Every structure is written in C-alpha cells, then in structure tokens.
Amino acid sequence: MDLAHHLTENKKIKPNYSAAGYVKVLAPATVANLVCGFDVLGMCLNEPNDLMEVKLLNEKKVIILSADGYPLPLDPAQNTAGAPLIEMINELDTPTGFEVTIHKRIKPGSGIGSSAASAAGAVVAANHLLGNVFSNKDLVRFAMFGEKVASGVKHADNVAPCIYGGITLIRSIHPLDIISISSPDLFVTIVHPQIEVRTKDARQILRKEVLLKDAIRQWGNIAGLVAGFMQSDLDLIGRSLEDVIIEPVRSILIPGFDEVKIKCKEAGALGGGISGSGPSLFMLSRDEATAKNVQTAMQDIYKQIGLEFNTYVTTINQKGVKIIEG
Which run of H or of E encompasses 30? Predict the structure, then answer.
C-alpha cells in the first residue's frame, strides 16, 4: 500500500507513527541555479551535511534546539526548519509536534543551501516519524516555507534536490512540478570565501527586466545543460555552463570571481560559477584528479587575495537527506 497522500481541501492526514519516536538524519548541501538555471535547477552534494535529530511530541508544537550553540532563531515560525514543520502538523488529524536539534555544519549565507538543508532535513525526518504519509512533492511544498523565512521568497531549487537527490528541474512552482534529471558521475569542487552574501540581498540587486536576446541565449544554455546531463555529454555540459543574466550582476559581490573561473577552466574544469546566491563558487570536473587540481587553483587565488576560505571536493548525492538512525 502506498502511504503517500496529497492533502485535499477537506481531508487531514492520519499519521502511522514510528515506534522509535526519534530519528537522526544527514541533511546535505546543495548547489542551486547551476549557473544558467536561476530558480529552476539544483544539485545535491555528498559533502558537507548538517546533522539533525528529531523527536515526536504528542502536542501541537515545534521546539528548535541548537546542538553546538550556533545562534539559530529558536522561534519556530522564524526558523528554516521550524516553519515547514508548522505547516506539516497543521495538515495532520492528530495533535502532533516535533523537537528538532540541529548540528549546523553548513554555514548560513554560504550559498550551498544552508537554509534548505535545515528545511529539507526537518521534513524528511518528521515524515519518517509519521510513517512516510507525505510524498516527496509534499515535503518540497512544506520545505519551501523554510526558504521563504530565509529569503522572503518561496523557491525549490535547493530543497528539491536535497529531498529527491541528484539534479532536479523545477518546471513550475504553481503548480509544483519537479523533474529528476539523470547525470553522469561528476566531481564537484566548492570554494567558500569567508564572507556572507544574504540571499535577500543578492536578489535585490538583480535586474527586473531582461533583454530578449539575453533570454534567448539563457534558454539555449538551460536546455543544453539538461540535455548534456541526460546524454552524459561532458563537452555540452561545459559549453552550457554560461549565465548572461544573473551571474554578471551577482559576481560583483564575490572577490576573485573572474580569476577563479579562468584558472579553474585552465586546470581542467568543465565549468561552473556561483553556487546559489554566493559567495561559494562551484566547478564540475570529469574525474577526481582534475577536481583536486581545481581545488588547488581556488586555494592559490584566495591565499593571494588574503581572504579566509574553505574548500570541498565532493560528488553528486543521488539520495538526498539520509536517515542514519531511528
């Protein structure tokens, strides 16, 4: 029997509670946009991850705890994990709540889906405790409330890959339409310069109107990138990792941006750009050796600039949020 239900206007969902009443999950980082796919493309990473512990409560409330003292909003309505859970419990037919303890390893404002990890990790964990009564699409719908807390706008390009795994295309928000995109085994190199770029701020500087010629070029790149992933055409992927609308504006917020792109391509990267709203930058490579050469190029640039940074060499996470206990 399929336990996944979609809520109708007059029906609330009956939980099938887990006997354990407790679950621990790894909630992964994500790369949104994938250069040309603003708000419609996203990719799940194997590293880094937030660690989240969720307990069932027998009353309608959400409690947020920070495991490591990181200054998270403890008001659930203002927390990216809490807001989705409030929406979820409002759709249940019994008094249910959750206590969420967050080990925050993905720094907020890093551009690799910190808010999405909290939102997606919370709803996947809660759904597990409820007996998986909600579908993945429902979970994305809930998790988008966390993104609204973080950025003021509901978007799914981080939460969808975090929940579904792999690479996802969000064809539409209203109605929600999510397509999983197959992809070759690629390596991903991330550099996070130690500055913060708030998603709200990065959205506010964007142009409100786009020239038709730029839109046409962007559509071609998005279609080319999706086709490249599905056909495992690495050269097409590389040619399509171009953004003529968003990145030219947002790149001014990121020191060393142009040099990173040039030096990483010289080191063998297929291409890449800003991860989400930045400041992290990502590059795709065909093998681990190239990805590590790209990492060295990134490190050299930020050492010369004199800016603290973190780097990761990882791969595409095909599973999304992972239950590790409970």
Answer: strand 22-32
- Name the residue with tokens 């003021």: 152
Domain ranges for the chain:
22-180+318-325, 187-315
Q: With 60 as the cut, is the pLDDT of residue 21 above it?
A: yes
The C-alpha atoms of residue 264 and residue 274 are separated, in whole angstroms, by 13
Query: Which member of 30, 168, 199, 290 is catalytic?
Result: 199
Q: Which fold has domain 22-180+318-325?
A: Ribosomal Protein S5; domain 2 (3.30.230)
On the 0-12 / 13-18 / 19+ scale of CB atoms within 10 A, 126 is buried
CA atoms of 43 and 275, how far apart (whole Å): 10
Which of 92, 81, 82 has the alpha carbon at shortest distance from 5?
Answer: 92
Whole-angstrom CA distances from 287 to 159, 248, 281 are: 27, 28, 18
Catalytic residue flag (residue 199) = yes
pLDDT of residue 3 exceeding 60: no
How many CB atoms are closer than 10 A to CB 8? 8
Asked if residues 104 and 72 have their Cβ atoms less than 8 Å apart, the reply is yes
9 as an active site residue: the answer is no
pTM (predicted TM-score): 0.92
Helix axes 82-89, 136-151, angle to 10 degrees: 130
Equal fold, 22-180+318-325 vs 187-315: no
**Distance set, CA 95 to CA 14, 74, 112 (Å):** 10, 21, 34
State in words which class domain 187-315 has: alpha beta
Is the pLDDT at 20 greater than 90? The verdict is: no
Active-site residue identified among 147, 168, 189, 247: 147
